[in-house]
């Protein structure tokens, strides 16, 4: 399939009339590579598409810019992701609203803002995204649900974030979107939900690329509070180019080491997690926030401590939990 896509893209590149479709195919190709865990290759596809269409005015260039934003997010370059996605939104304009491209990439922008900890902007972006839903893009529903999950997580509502991630996994599964289902289960694990242990193992046997097998290991490590396995998984995610998940897995490893009273290992894992987050442009997440708590709290206690630190009242904390 990948060879056919590359050949098709090559043919489209030769036709000025079809150049917009070529950049669209490149975006699909890059997403498939991201989902499979070939992050560097995905960025290369997006960069090649931009190079080919950089001098072309209009939608061809804009789609290529949007693909750059998508792959920047996928590799954890949050500042670049926001910059490219904002440029794409301006380029798509009213045409993007009509055909649904604005909706497609607003989902990514919402997630980017949430991962950066810009709660006010993320909430506003989520509301605009919801109002701009487009029937042609029903297939990205799981991505929309995951963006909502990250907004909830940024607000400290981790239980709600888990619910959104599980809904994303269920949508993907019911629509035969196996790679997207794996991404949703991976995200749920980032929120500390390991309910997808068995299903992620099944997906690892049928979904191509390194991510599915790595996600299965990750979910199991979260389920077992296995600090050593979380350390290893984090390094593997970093190796495939997904620094955001690597940061969360390292943060969870720090918490697990701390619960096992391995203070040195906890400090090392925590320092690595926060360096990865810094390298991503200041990424935030429940796992990263929990890794800063020094006492051997449970995950639930970590969530409550984070809400207290954010200044929520007891009533608001009760509603969030």
Structure description:
- With 321 residues, this protein is mainly alpha-helical.
- Helix content is 78%, strand content 0%.
- Helix 9 packs antiparallel against helix 10 (178-190).
- It is globular.
- The protein starts with a helix and ends with a helix.
- The model is unreliable at 1-9 (pLDDT under 50).
Set out the fold topology.
Elements: H1 2-13, H2 19-36, H3 39-53, H4 59-75, H5 78-99, H6 101-116, H7 119-131, H8 141-154, H9 158-174, H10 178-190, H11 197-204, H12 210-223, H13 227-240, H14 243-259, H15 263-279, H16 286-291, H17 299-309, H18 314-320
Descriptive terms for the model:
single chain, mainly alpha, disordered N terminus, 321 residues
Brief synopsis:
The chain is mostly helical. The chain is 78% helix and 0% strand.
Counting DSSP H or I runs of 4 or more residues, the number of helices is: 18
Please describe the biggest sheet, giving its number of strands, its sense, and whether it closes into a barrel: none
Separation of the first and last Cα atoms? 44 Å
Shape: globular
Fraction of residues in β-strands: under 5%
- Name the structural class: mainly alpha
Q: Which residue ranges are poorly predicted, with pLDDT under 50 across at least 5 consecutive positions?
A: 1-9
Order of helices and strands: HHHHHHHHHHHHHHHHHH
Which percent range fits the helix content? Answer: over 70%
Radius of gyration: 19 Å
Mean of pLDDT: 90
User: Care to count the β-strands?
Assistant: 0
